[in-house]
Amino acid sequence: MHDTMVLDHWRLFDFGYVIFAKMLFSLSAKNSTVVVTPSEHSKRQITRRWPHLDVRVIPWPTFRARASAPRSAPGSNEIVLIASCDKHKRIPMAIRSVDRARRLADGHLRLTIVGKSGNDVEAITQAISEVDGGWLTWIKTGVPQKDLDTLISEAFCVLSTSLDEGFCLPLLEAGSAGVPVVHTGRGAMPEVVGQSPLGDQAGTEEDQIALRLVALLDRPTWAGAARRAHHETQRFSPSVFESQWGALLNEVATRA
Is the distance from CB of 53 to CB of 35 less than 8 angstroms? Predict the structure, then answer.
């Protein structure tokens, strides 16, 4: 069970899907021996609803080629956001935050959104229409993994403005590539790449995101953020993932 977001934030999802998820999740929980989830955050949310469950945390690994060291300087001025175009991802907020950062940084930054269709496409389209969109690229189709890896590796940073996350693979991929991340600190994101390395700023979340993006224009700050993201993600390896799953499968098999 990756997360319970559709139950926790049900107003942000299609009502039919919410009803389906309530029935399926409850049925699955009732008949499970062990529930596996990728983060302590998701475990807390699951056990809050079903206190009797045996819930184990096995984080996702990164399967991309891990950078041996963090980058010392950005490969571009491109902020990358990889997410479904759904309401809980809050992509319009990302657009407004980058627009604000650009005004503070004399237009230096750009934004690339990699996101297929979801339930917030209309709001995203509206947000784009309200800014000078020459600095924004929205990739709505699938991106080959090789191209996605290059996009992440050469990014100025990878951004997440999600309201909640059960894990957040794009941040893990960024950290493993030695690229800084900027995020809202919601859900499991701090578990994956730590708290925002730039500290708390005054103002709204949009203000804070904008100020953190601008702060990364300072080269030593950028390099320090890259080092921290790279360090935080070292523990999410395929070998650890396979070992944890192997041990759990052996444990469950001995119960049968």
Answer: yes
For the chain, the domains span: 5-61+237-255, 78-235
What is the C-alpha to C-alpha distance for residues 253 and 256, in angstroms, rounded to an integer?
A: 5
User: What is the value of pTM for the model shown?
Assistant: 0.94
Instruction: Say if CB 47 and CB 68 are below 8 A apart.
Output: no
Tokens of 91: 């992509």
Instruction: Say how far apart CA 35 and CA 4 lie, in whole Å.
Output: 12
Q: Give the tens place of pLDDT for each residue, 44-93.
A: 999 999 999 999 999 999 887 788 889 889 989 999 999 999 999 999 99
Q: What is the pLDDT of residue 256?
A: 67
Backbone phi, psi, residue 251, to 5°: -60, -45
Cα–Cα distance measured from residue 8 to residue 10, given in angstroms and rounded to the nearest whole number: 6
What are the start-end ranges of the H helices in the chain? 5-8, 15-30, 40-49, 91-104, 121-129, 145-153, 169-176, 189-193, 205-215, 219-232, 238-255
How far lies 115's CA from each of 31, 137, 139, 204, in Å?
Answer: 35, 11, 6, 25
Please state which architecture CATH assigns to domain 78-235.
3-Layer(aba) Sandwich (3.40)
How far apart are alpha carbons 232 and 176 in whole angstroms? 9
